[in-house]
Specification:
Layout lengths: L13 E9 L3 H11 L4 H9 L6 H17 L8 E19 L5 E17 L2 H16 L1
Length: 140
């Protein structure tokens, strides 16, 4: 007798991946996350591949994990995936001391971050159906 399964919080056309304890500040990671937010996964992977930021490699691994989760666990079409969410959270901060001049000490903060990426299957067929009545209204 174990615990009952936790209900799924995402929609049926979504999958997510979480990268925890990334050794970078949330501010720097937020810049890279903003780079891929809202893009198709092919373009997002290409942007991360050629980004000059060090953390882009870890973000790319997390995005590839989200794509694999969508394909293998939720049977979503990889060609229609879009990065729906890419948000950054603060993990913990290591505090260290560095000796300074005249017997003083300076604080060194080493910050860690968490990254959550949610990919969503864009319903192109539904979008075409919704745009069809608008075109008919314009013709009338």
């Amino acid at each position: 007798m174990g615990k009952s399964a936790k209900p799924r919080t995402l929609k049926d056309n979504e999958a997510k991946a979480v990268a925890r304890m990334l050794r970078v500040s949330p501010q720097k990671l937020g810049l890279v996350a903003g780079l891929i937010r809202g893009k198709k996964v092919g373009g997002a992977l290409a942007d991360l591949q050629f980004s000059r930021k060090r953390i882009a490699r870890d973000v790319k691994k997390c995005l590839e994990s989200a794509i694999a989760n969508a394909e293998n666990n939720h049977d979503l079409d990889v060609d229609d995936l879009v990065v729906a969410e890419a948000h950054v959270g603060k993990a913990f901060v290591m505090k260290r001391w560095m000796p300074r001049g005249r017997g003083k000490s300076g604080r060194i903060f080493s910050t860690f971050s968490n990254l959550t990426i949610v990919v969503r299957e864009a319903a192109q067929k539904e979008a075409a159906k919704k745009s069809a009545p608008k075109q008919a209204e314009g013709a009338a």
